[in-house]
Design brief:
By secondary structure, the protein is an alpha/beta fold. The protein has 12 helices and 14 strands.
């Protein structure tokens, strides 16, 4: 009997998903792309893991996706939010107008979802001003205003808390919760042991998520990758990008990209001390990220390097100079 033809491309990747779990994937992976969403069917209806951006067209695509599986928005009885960022929960503004599901969040993300203006702190929006970086002459940077045209945010009250390092029972599946900070303090990845599915949210994907000191920093990011690498995952589902049958390779690639940036920073310091502002402009030459998230990412690397005794960061009275310590470049 001839072997059955194996599906190709995206259909092959989708075939990795266990029966009862479906992926709603955005066509783009680069910001301001909407996050992918997982649909878990059960006898009571449906669970959604993330819901996407707060643009109406994004929400309508989500409803079309549900309809393609014979579901309506009212069938969604539970929403799991991997973290309180607009590309993952912005569409709650529309969903909550039509239905009232259970809403699950990590305990440190719940206050941010309820009052999104708090994201200004976790995104470290005031940090660039400290170093004299203010290309837009802002008196008080507002991340929600920044998001408003790109990927609007919404507020939502958590009805249930995700236990860090606990388990989530969604339909017939039992997911292990893995906290992976850096991009968000309460960012959770979900591992389903039976199938080996690892949903990494923003911890690993086609693009490396930005990170900030108040969201866990680079150290938190790397520690989260260690936790993911220790799981016996068979395939990886990201929030941005395609399913991968090589979880270890994808996790390692994310780590390599992070450390490559660190190497570039040290390379820029090889010739001698430089101001934080100048260093940021050299490392992040794209003017689109000169204010966010470039300075925030740079500060994360300097925090790590300073803790390791590899660089020294001087204070305001010395012009916020950064220098590599002898013999470490």
């Amino acid at each position: 009997m001839p072997a059955m033809a194996r599906p190709h491309g995206l259909e092959y990747h989708r075939s990795m998903l266990p029966d009862g779990i479906y992926l709603h994937r955005d066509e783009e992976a680069i910001w301001p792309a909407s996050a992918n969403a997982l649909l878990v069917r059960d006898p009571d209806g449906a669970v959604l893991v993330d819901v996407g951006c707060g643009k109406e067209e994004v929400y309508l695509r989500l409803k079309d996706f549900l309809a393609s599986h014979g579901l309506e928005i009212g069938d969604v009885h539970t929403v799991v939010l991997t973290h309180a960022h607009p590309d993952h929960m912005g569409a709650m503004r529309y969903l909550l107008e039509e239905t009232r599901p259970r809403v699950l969040l990590h305990p440190v993300e719940a206050p941010l979802a309820a009052e999104p203006s708090r994201l200004n702190h976790t995104f470290d929006m005031a940090l660039p001003l400290r170093y004299g970086i203010n290309p837009f002459n802002l008196e008080k940077p507002d991340i929600l205003e920044y998001f408003s045209n790109l990927c609007p945010m919404a507020s939502a009250d958590a009805t249930h808390i995700i236990e860090p390092d606990g388990e989530l029972e969604l339909g017939r599946f039992r997911f292990k919760v893995v906290v992976t900070p850096g991009h968000a303090n309460g960012l959770v990845s979900l591992f389903e042991p039976e199938s080996g599915m690892l949903f990494t949210a923003d911890a690993v994907g086609d693009v490396v998520a930005w990170y900030s000191p108040s969201s866990g920093g680079l150290t938190g990011f790397l520690e989260g990758l260690d936790r993911l690498a220790g799981l016996p995952a068979a395939f990886l589902v990201p929030s941005h990008g395609e399913i991968s049958g090589s979880p270890s390779r994808e996790i390692a690639r994310t780590r390599e990209r992070l450390l490559r940036r660190e190497k570039k920073i040290l390379g820029e310091l090889a010739a001698g001390p430089v101001s934080f502002q100048e260093l940021a402009s050299r490392v992040f030459r794209n003017p689109m990220i000169a204010f966010f998230p470039g300075p925030q990412i740079l500060r994360c690397h300097l925090d790590k390097l300073e803790a390791e005794g590899r660089v020294r960061c001087r204070g305001e009275e010395e012009g916020w100079l950064v220098e590599a310590l002898q013999g470490v470049v």
